[in-house]
Write a structure and sequence with these properties.
The complex is a heteropentamer, with 1 copy of chain A (224 residues), 2 copies of chain B (346 residues) and 2 copies of chain D (223 residues). Chain B is built from 9 helices and 20 strands. Chain B is of the alpha+beta class. In chain B, the strands form 4 sheets. In chain B, strands 6-7-8-3-9-10 form a 6-stranded mixed beta sheet, with helices on both faces. Chain B has a 5-stranded antiparallel beta sheet with strand order 13-12-11-14-20. In chain B, strands 15-19-16-17-18 form a 5-stranded antiparallel beta sheet. In chain B, helix 5 links the parallel strand 7 and strand 8. Chain D is 81% helix and 0% strand. Classes of the chains: A alpha/beta (224), B alpha+beta (346), D mainly alpha (223). Chains B and C meet through helix 1, helix 4, helix 5, strand 15 and strand 18 of B and helix 1, helix 4, helix 5, strand 15 and strand 18 of C. Bound molecules: adenosine-5'-triphosphate (2 copies) and magnesium ion (2 copies).
Chain lengths: 224, 346, 346, 223, 223
Amino acid sequence: SRPLPRAVRVGAASSLREALMPSATGFDARNIPVSVNMTFEASSTLSRQVEAGAEYDVVLCADAESLDRLGSRVVETTRRVFLTNRLALLGPQGTLALDGIPATTKVAIAGPEVPAGKAWRKYLEGSGRLAGLEARFVIADSVRAALALFESGAVDYTLVYATDAKAAKRAHAAWTPPDGPVTEYVAAVVAGRDSAEARTFVGWLGSAGFQEDARKRGFGIPPK
Amino acid sequence: MITFDLRAEYPGFRLEAAASWASPATALFGASGSGKTTILEALAGLRPEVNGRFEAGGIRLDEMEVHDREIGWVPQDASLFPHLTTRGNIEFAGRSNASEAAIDALELRPLLDRRATELSGGERQRVAVARALAAGPRLLLLDEPLAAVDRPMRARILPYLARIPAELGIPMLVVTHDPHEVHALASHVIVLDRGRVAAQGHPRDILASPAALGVLEALGAENLFEVKVLARAGGVLSLGTAKGSQLEMAAVAGFPEPSRVAVRAEDIMLMSSEPGLVSAQNVIPAEVAAIETLGEHMYVRLVAGEERWVAKVTARAVEKLELVAGKRAWMLVKAHAIHAFDAAGA
Amino acid sequence: MITFDLRAEYPGFRLEAAASWASPATALFGASGSGKTTILEALAGLRPEVNGRFEAGGIRLDEMEVHDREIGWVPQDASLFPHLTTRGNIEFAGRSNASEAAIDALELRPLLDRRATELSGGERQRVAVARALAAGPRLLLLDEPLAAVDRPMRARILPYLARIPAELGIPMLVVTHDPHEVHALASHVIVLDRGRVAAQGHPRDILASPAALGVLEALGAENLFEVKVLARAGGVLSLGTAKGSQLEMAAVAGFPEPSRVAVRAEDIMLMSSEPGLVSAQNVIPAEVAAIETLGEHMYVRLVAGEERWVAKVTARAVEKLELVAGKRAWMLVKAHAIHAFDAAGA
Amino acid sequence: MTLPETAGIALLTLRVALTATLIAGVPALALGYALARFRFPGKPLVQTVVALPMVLPPVAIGLALLECLSRRSPFGRACEALFGQTLLLTWWAAALASAVVAFPLITRAAEQAFAAVPLRLEHVARTLGCSGPGVFRRISLPLAARGLLYGTLFGFARALGEFGATSMVAGRIPGETETLALAIYGRIEMFREGEAWMLAGVSLLLALAPTAAAEIFLRRGER
Amino acid sequence: MTLPETAGIALLTLRVALTATLIAGVPALALGYALARFRFPGKPLVQTVVALPMVLPPVAIGLALLECLSRRSPFGRACEALFGQTLLLTWWAAALASAVVAFPLITRAAEQAFAAVPLRLEHVARTLGCSGPGVFRRISLPLAARGLLYGTLFGFARALGEFGATSMVAGRIPGETETLALAIYGRIEMFREGEAWMLAGVSLLLALAPTAAAEIFLRRGER
Ligand SMILES: Nc1ncnc2c1ncn2[C@@H]1O[C@H](COP(=O)(O)OP(=O)(O)OP(=O)(O)O)[C@@H](O)[C@H]1O
Ligand SMILES: Nc1ncnc2c1ncn2[C@@H]1O[C@H](COP(=O)(O)OP(=O)(O)OP(=O)(O)O)[C@@H](O)[C@H]1O
Ligand SMILES: [Mg+2]
Ligand SMILES: [Mg+2]
């Protein structure tokens, strides 16, 4: 609907960085049918920015709630889940399980405002473990910060995403709760910024090529 | 007509001074700490805590913005602009004929490109004077402008300053501790004492009051005369006083012809009989009018023609010469003891 | 023995001055901008760009840390510590008897609790002098210490300063433009001219060289005598000179007995015959030794007894009195024209 | 990382930080002068507001700025009308965020620099016929110059390092709003510390080059 | 939020910021004096290092600190041996992070303040028998006092607002390391703006109370 093809401006959740910008030179443009300009923020920041009128064409959030908050500011019909993620506990090498965490050690976790932090808390609460662990939480302001604490040795356990387990350089073991929730990454075109290019990009997110690539980096693929 | 009436209260010092004068050249005289700088700074607008009024030529300067007052203030500490050269300081208020004249008169030409921070104490003071003059003010306030300047240079600069009121029409108020400067520059003196005006008037009138002898001693010249030059020959000027007496003085090279001269009471010698051949150019017959004692010294007041004189001698001399009121005496005054001051006409 | 040999190059000014003296009281005399402050600041250690050596009492002060030099430096601008009171400034180097004495002598007691920023120009200078004295230095460097102090107070303070070298054993080097101060304080003068030492020595010796007449005129007193007080009566002191002559001078209240006196050449009157009764206390028969002309004035050199004198008279007087070398003449000198200077013994 | 890419980021950062310094500098100098020289009602209030960006975490500043620039606020709408688009997610927003953060630093340095100018000299200038602005330009400004310059460069350095508020209002769009600080953050998040430190070096260079230049310039002026 | 909760956060913040100001203040004053008064080899290098925390985004500082304090580094191991535990995730780490960020501010202010003390006065003091430390204590320090105090308070304010580096090395453990800045961040991210602004007010209060106290104190001293 625009006269000139222009870069689609995408605001993406920080944890999608590995999926969308895997190479050192940034974005692998050959695979994308449109030109894209990408920024990574906390999902809450993204929704705040869109609320304020920031001109993203497409937003990619790590939880549905952030998009829900935007209501009619996104084009409802363009909403789609394009990748999933799983929770993961990282710890010292060896056998690892939530219940195996020593009673006094600290555990790094992203804040409850971060989708990963929220998902972990919800899961722990559901499985009745939150009370036991909460007092030992070290809260980081992003999943990456939690991981950095783990890497530095400040904590020996951290509650993050499965995709983060692949990025950590410290020798570690990872454990994914089998009964844990599946985090869904949701894409939507921003209201008033609807364009063919934006829709093409969202469509590309569902393409087999992209999803297969992301799977190699630890993401899950939503059932069609 | 310039008038001020100022009041201020500092811990340990109270200023309560009012004065009013028409003389274009006025000296503010008083001991250290008597409030001279406080008054000048108040007139320049620097001391908001000083209350009162200040008028010049019918204009209420105290009600004007400082930058509209057109006051040439030379602060006691010079306060040159440290980021400018000598020339930059002098021409701060713009280039003018006045600046060139001031540069020459104050012998600043070799220093024009030097930074203000690289000047000596005396050089700084002279630059401050030139800066104030160059702005073409309506009134000059000089706070001990030549205190750091050496004697020979002071002797060269004084006549220039003294001519300013008459030639440029700029009245001035000079603070000075130097009696020579008072006489050279002022036809009106305001004597300050602990924040109050103790006396003011023409130096000659102040002189007439015996109560002011202490001040006069500090002033250093008790005999003042308005004169006209009658003749000049062989390094000697012949002067006629207003009342018709004649005085001979040593001519000073470069000094303009004097219109006022001063003789210190100390410099007058008395003889009870007419002297023979004497090097003194002035041998003046007179009559003793009165004898006053101040400490161990005696002031002999004399009348010669219609002029009043005062001579300072020792008690022993009074005794030896048997000086009493009414007795005839000859005053011997060296031509060198007559000091010329080209003060602006009162 | 104090020695300095200093060299520095500024744009437009070159310092190349060496001097050496044993006198405990020495004056640094010279025109504005001749380098006096530069020398004092270099001796105090403030000017690293000045090269050379500086010794006092056999100690190489220039090689010592500034805080070990024990120099009492009174800067030309006082440079008081603005965050301290008068007392805080004076007692900066510690409480001492010297500080109390200095406080009284410099009349600072009423100002002790005042902040340094609230002092007048003259008050600041006096505090700076007291501060330097209170530290009990091994050498005093005074840069125009009394320039902003009024005449009567200066007359009270000078005798105190003059006694310091003898009574406290602290040698001093004083910069001053005031000839009265030179005579009052110094038994050695270093005359600076554009960064170089033009002359140095006892004021009397400097006097003897006709080439130095210009300097001497600036100094303002051409006749100097070491004296002893013989008697005191009726406000008059009878003095005996080293060579046996007698002089009568007016006693100055509060001034200690003089050991040196000065008479300005201007203040001497000459007569070609013995005068009759005259108020002058000193009538001294003499013989004309030589007559020198300087501009429009004449300097008559005379010998009286074994003492040499110089009198300044007009050319006309020389003519009138028919003064020539070898002729007899009577000098008349008022008791008031003999100025007492209680300098420390040379 | 390629050289052109690095150079691009550095240039963008330079543009953002310079603009920020300009935006913050002029009012900061004026305010610094006012704080140093005048007493006025509401002075403590002004000082409070100036201190605000120092004390708040950058997110809070970002949030406040986001609010200001959003369509919900009159200022945001005015900007949008003026520029034809919202400033959010543009380098202008980044400059604005950096300006807000640099503002208290420059103000404070200016206040200190102006306070060090002897009142007496300003007063002498006034007696020489200079009115307020003249005194400011000819006396206060040159005498405070060194302090002002350093304060401004300090603000510039702070602007270079601004991250929290910037990323909130400007996003982190490569080639558009990704300044050095944001790029360093991104590299760290991607565990590419090597690149991050390299970029930090560039950042430091940008901060120090003008300081060094100023030093040389001021030294010359003093001769 | 309950009052005790708020008070707890405020107290913790105060402890962290005061400690940070102390840790940074003493070396910053010394360095500021050295920079203002001496020429020494490597001075530009020192100035570079001082500027570093200004120019880097806080995450980078946090990361560097994390590296320093971690068991991998000798410094981290030394601290652990000294304190019996790692400093990471304690309020000491928060104080350290704030100190690093406040350091350049205090150094710069100190340099400016010391440079404004007339060399001449220091010199007069030296002629009066004061050696270097004496001159510093009795002349430089009191004459620079106002500038130093303000610089330090400025650093304190900056320490109060420190967020990025702090959260990285100290985590955000409620009651242990959650300072006001961290709490404000959390509240904002959780869309509890009301609480966030309330905490911001507390933060501002903490920053300004000492400034106001200092102002009154200095005014008195001047009488
Ligand atoms: N701001 C002030 N606070 C308190 N006292 C002050 C203040 N300013 C001046 N004074 C006092 O007022 C008196 C007059 O000071 P002022 O500077 O006017 O003296 P002055 O006549 O100029 O003396 P000098 O000849 O020494 O310069 C002094 O005793 C001084 O200490
Ligand atoms: N830092 C400097 N740079 C350049 N010139 C200087 C510097 N310091 C002094 N001068 C020059 O050196 C000369 C001597 O200065 P100094 O202050 O020693 O003079 P002074 O004899 O004390 O004079 P005054 O009696 O006026 O105080 C002056 O002409 C001055 O301008
Ligand atoms: Mg004064
Ligand atoms: Mg000098």
